[in-house]
Amino acid sequence: MEKEIKTKPKEGYTVVLDVMGKKREAKGKTIEDALKNFKIDWSVIKTKGTLTVKKGSKKHIHFYNMPQLKRIFINKMTRMQQAKYLGQLLEAGKKTNLSI
Q1: Does residue 9 have a pLDDT over 50?
Q2: How many domains are contained in the chain?
Q3: Are 98 and 61 in contact (CB under 8 A)?
Q4: Sign (positive/negative) of CA torsion 46, 27, 57, 53?
Q5: Is 67 domain-assigned?
Q6: Burial class for 99, CB neighbours closer than 10 Å (0-12, 13-18, 19+)
Q7: Residue at 24 is within a domain
Q8: Mean pLDDT of the region 28-56
Q9: CA dist 98 → 11, 74, 91 (Å)
Q10: Is the residue at 5 inside a domain?
Q11: Residue 60 · residue 89 · CB < 8 Å
Q12: What is the pTM of this model?
């Protein structure tokens, strides 16, 4: 008699970019992977926007001005730094900016 082993798949992160009312979504194992998976050119970003990070039942919405948002998609170092920052805010559950 064999035992059936049920494994729960690891949950990844979902990042939603909302700029000018258009929502784009990307998924990844880490927040940085999800940000890399966006099929978006930085020149498309013409105004402020929000990045929503979700993992399971946790959710964090962060507001960015246009230069900050463009920098995330242009510069790898900025993307890594912001991914780490968003991950810390998501895990801590702080009510900064627009945490839910």
Answers
A1: no
A2: 1
A3: yes
A4: negative
A5: yes
A6: middle
A7: yes
A8: 92
A9: 23, 24, 14
A10: no
A11: yes
A12: 0.78
